[in-house]
């Protein structure tokens, strides 16, 4: 949708329009309540600012909407479609990559107690696997900061696609 259309929606409609970008109520309210936006960069600046910092509870809630890397999001929701598009470079028929991702996801979840989150858009499977391996050496506090940053990156990329200039 165009920015002018987003600006003209009701508060509820606007929140629903951008919810697939990031389903964190505080973030949604900040983005929606700052309307009208004079230009697209103002929208992205507001979204970026509202995404700092995320609380541990907000991150936990947002992670519940993200499938594991290498697993295709199911359903026909806009959020599921965005997730599938973001992970398009991860070929489900590449059994070697799929096996390494499964093993890495399980090890990550065992270590950190949450799903491994990475901005997959624009990354190759090898880059994703390298990041996964490198992040296994993080302590939990450092990793929480990395996850928050990845969540921000995903939200901003999705928002750019949902609301265009």
TrEMBL record:
Keyword Acetylation: no
Pfam families: OHCU_decarbox (PF09349)
Reactions the enzyme catalyzes: 5-hydroxy-2-oxo-4-ureido-2,5-dihydro-1H-imidazole-5-carboxylate + H(+) = (S)-allantoin + CO2
Gene Ontology biological-process annotations: purine nucleobase metabolic process; urate catabolic process
Domain (Oxo-4-hydroxy-4-carboxy-5-ureidoimidazoline decarboxylase): residue spans on this chain: 7-160
GO molecular function, one term: 2-oxo-4-hydroxy-4-carboxy-5-ureidoimidazoline decarboxylase activity
Keywords for the protein's UniProt record, in alphabetical order: Decarboxylase, Lyase, Purine metabolism
Lyase listed as a keyword: yes
SUPFAM superfamilies per record: UraD-Like (SSF158694)
EC number: 4.1.1.97
Listed PANTHER family: 2-OXO-4-HYDROXY-4-CARBOXY-5-UREIDOIMIDAZOLINE DECARBOXYLASE-RELATED
NCBIfam families on file: PRK13798.1, UraD_2
Protein name: 2-oxo-4-hydroxy-4-carboxy-5-ureidoimidazoline decarboxylase
Species name: Kocuria rosea subsp. polaris
